[in-house]
Write a structure and sequence with these properties.
This protein has one domain. It contains 4 helices and no strands.
Length: about 130
């Protein structure tokens, strides 16, 4: 399992890496981080009192994480043994998002597959 800090660090280090695998914990820690940032941007917009500024900041952040979000989604699909194109299942209205979430919640393949070795958390030295 990957912890929160390592997941976010690896998310930005692997900015446009569509090869390999991303563990379930890595994927969901990054989704939590993106949710927290979106909430913070909303709070900043409320404090400033400018909905336009909040939308602008949200748009900038969304553009900044678009490619890494796609890449971690592709690597998550690789981790469960599916091709990266499965992320586009989410484009099907309603049912697609549900299916994609189920795929992202699926267990990792516990063995090396055609996309690479089993992802592991960096070893921490105390």
């Amino acid at each position: 399992m990957t912890d929160f800090g390592d997941a976010v660090r690896l998310f930005f280090q692997n900015y446009a890496n569509f090869n390999g695998r991303a563990s379930r914990s890595m994927y969901w820690w990054v989704m939590l981080f993106n949710f927290i940032v979106a909430c913070a941007i909303g709070v900043i917009g409320a404090i400033i009192g400018s909905e336009t500024m909040a939308k602008f900041l949200d748009g900038i952040y969304t553009l900044a994480v678009l490619v890494p979000s796609l890449s971690i989604g592709v690597r998550r699909m690789h981790d469960i043994g599916k091709g990266g194109g499965w992320i586009f299942i989410s484009l099907i209205p309603f049912v697609g998002w549900i299916w994609y979430i189920v795929l992202c919640c699926s267990d990792s393949e516990p063995f090396d597959n055609r996309f690479g070795p089993v992802p592991y958390a960096p070893v921490k030295k105390y």
